[in-house]
Amino acid sequence: MRDNCYLCSGYPAFNVFDMKNIRNFSIIAHIDHGKSTLADRILEITGLVRKTSMDQMLDSMDLERERGITIKAKSVRIPYKAADGKEYVLNLIDTPGHVDFNYEVSRSLKACEGAVLLVDATQGVEAQTIANANLAFDAGLKIIPVINKIDLPNAMLDDCSLQLYTMLGLGIEDILHVSAKDGRGVAELLEAIVARIPPPSGSASDPLKCLIFDSFFDTYRGVTPHLRVLSGRIAPGDRIMLKSTEKTFEVEEVGYFSLGLARSELLRAGEVGYAVALIRNAGEIHVGDTIVSADHPEVTAIPGFRMSQPMVYCGIYPIITSDYAKLGAALEKFKLNDSSVVFEKENSAALGYGYRMGFLGMLHMEIALERLRREYEQDIIATMPSVIYRVICLNGEVLMLDNPSKFPPEGQIDHIEEPIIRTRIIVPSDYVGPCMELSDAKRGVLVGIEHPDDRRAILVYDLPLADMITDFYDRLKSVSRGYASMDYEMNGYRAADLVKVDILVNNGPVDALSYIAPREGAATRGRALIHKLSKTIPKHLFKIPLQAAIGSQIIAREDIFPRRKDVLAKCYGGDITRKRKLLEKQKEGKKKMKMVGFVEVPQEAFLSLMKIED
Amino acid sequence: MQGLYVHIPFCVSKCFYCDFYSVSDKLELMDKYLGALLSEADNYRGMDFTTLYLGGGTPSILGAERLEKMIIGLRRRFGFNYLQEATIEVNPESAGVDLLATAFAMGIRRISIGAQSLNEAELKKSGRAHNRRQVMEAMDAALSSGFRNISADIIVGLPGQTVQSLGDTITILIAAGVNHISAYCLSVEDGTAFYRCPPPDLPDEDEQAGLFQCIAGVLRKHGFVHYEISNFARPGSECLHNLNYWRGGEYLGLGPAAASHINGKRFSNAASLDLYLADPSSAVEQEERLEGTRKAGEEAMLRLRLIQEGLDMEEMTGKYGLTAVEKLEARLHELVERRMLSRDGHIFHLRPECVLTSNSVFVDVIV
Predict the structure, then answer these.
(1) Interface test with B, best of A565, A577, A593 (most B CBs within 10 A)
(2) Which ipTM value was assigned to this complex?
(3) Are A232 and A368 in the same domain?
(4) How many degrees, rounded to 5, is the angle at CA B232 between CA B228 and CA B236?
(5) Which of A328, A571, B76, B174 is deepest in the core (most CB within 10 A)?
(6) What CATH class has B291-367?
(7) What confidence tens digit (pLDDT) does each residue in A369-396 have?
(8) Is A303 a domain residue?
């Protein structure tokens, strides 16, 4: 990172800034409402970056750009000369834009005094708009409501204003209109940030207290926390302590974020920046934790800290069994980068040695697996994701199980409880019916319906998380023609009549395919899954029976008939190179499959359960 | 053992399944083409060949006069003193006595007739330019011109084909005097008419497998040996030119899209008549030289196609050295255990029941 710091030349004059000229803020929005574009435009208009063809400066991970979402929060310090002639420092703290990362968002907001709440003029207020706005209210932030995309012909300015007023209680007269795309209104927004968001409070002469709201990993300097200094000052040579673990470290370097890291002499109350303290283990740094001076360990922690808690688990296995050690090393490295994942060794009778990995949510899982494959070059098979079940045994023992294959025999189980989420679905009135049908089918319990205006409804449902992580969101989008948006939070456990379904491939049980399902409809789903598997697992040279079973009772069976023809007929002359390449391609395809006994099983098979229609 | 392949990229029309390189709208360029061909041959002047194969496209479309001119031209440039076999592919509609007599007179002793089927409906649905009568006439013409080595190409899996129709095709061809049959399973290739518009009565893979097994049985009963995955011959009538391919041998290919294997390097000409005519020497498009282990894997893949002859690992070790074949040999033993190969000392054979699923063997053999 040091090499990349083209801006870290000496100690810039920012440190002489008066705290009252600092504004710390976030931009919060529903996905695709233009958060990153607005951030780009702000950087451009303030002159921090020149107008460039490279879009979305803040999203630096490839995956983020591909998916159009921000995964890791990042921040940037923007010098700004306001209309009043004074020089200000604006710290824009970027937040991840997905419900999986709600806790991270809330911590980022804790580092701010204000938030720009962005709403797409063509979409209006959506579920995550509300969820994020609530997080901002809870953090006590000053909210600047902004309607974006006013350049679009189908912008509905009045409707959006009304929604912001009725659904969030924001003053219509406070709403600004911008087009992040063409820059209209962004100058006014910058003025509003200076005028409306209060400067940070806290005294630089008090003992040190910092909030960690993010971190990044650098091979040479270890884990570097992103901080908001709430009081006191932090400088190289200081000894600091992490409140959660009471571990102490010596500060090597502090600085702030420009387009790279910009080293500075110290950070004072009100400022946002980073501190290098040679923290080797990513597990030491937890978002939301408090840093205090080792000389003042009595300073209290910032409330609301919790360790990130995985919600969704899946098994990951190397495709080639002997790559197990390599996979372990990759996971260790990965964890340094993303401390919110957890993993532990797991052994599957069918798949061999692998790991059980926990994620904050489904999106987090997808991103993490994709990064393992792409950035860490691991050929892996991921099994069906599972939630954590609470299994109450007849002997009174309570087991928290994230892996269906670890379930005790049915005879030992008193009952099973599953995690429940409370979800808020915002949907145009026309689609309320289909959305409710879907939620009911997914074992949802309606908690309430609100009608914020005459065109939209807010459905509040309690849903099993397990159903949520299969295909609920996709189905919701499809039954509402893409109009519904949703947000959710955990809402405890609920008892349910669940059974474990085992899948047998070629007469052997494949533990990695077993799953937990409601007893009602288990047979139908089992049949659908077996059918799906029969289409996913390629034909072999022998017959492969596929069976689903509850205990010893077979509930579904289909056979994959042997492949009778797989031959290159014409192979002579010039064809040889081409034919060899065809075989190589076939060989590549085989490499992406996992050998389960004598059967080659492709990745899709392990996720079949998520793809079956009810 | 070194082969010469000459590609004649002209056809009267394009068959619906065919993805070989040929043109049917530029027949007027044939004379010019012969000039280009001989000028490409100039680059290899002085080479000696033991087999000659005129393939296509449709070599018989050239007519007697051009054929004679071409062979004389090739003779001037190459040595054929040790020639063991010379084959010309002919299509029934252009295999008249005139052409065949000329071919025989020029020293060609083997012909391969593109019959494909003797069933009129199958021929029509596949876009063939001939009918059953023309195949029989071509057979007669070949015999009367003196040919005793006659092969017929047939396709397994034509639209509407049945065990009955395919069996008829085979038995009639055998009765008419063929001593070699190449039976290719139809595969619908990208860019063909069948790919764009698949006929509804195209047999599926399982049905193809059934059809193939049926004719393999018929041919065996008539004394034909299944010597390569797609080839059957009366003992002693195997195609030497093709055997050379499957034994990893070397050969020169002339003409657009023709491939060569010389001094361990495989290369092929661009599949473009225009490019070739513009400059026959600069048409080389793809080049590949595999080393050690990979080359051995390729040869093993080819040699295992020879069902009777098999793959002699002692010979391979002598050719490539112990280190290059070590892993290959281990994989072969694994395949024996999986009952896909059989082993007789140091010779490995594809198991007969695995012939039609041999790709699953070959993917493990290549590196």
Answers:
(1) A565
(2) 0.90
(3) no
(4) 95
(5) A571
(6) mainly alpha
(7) 998 998 889 999 999 899 999 999 999 9
(8) no
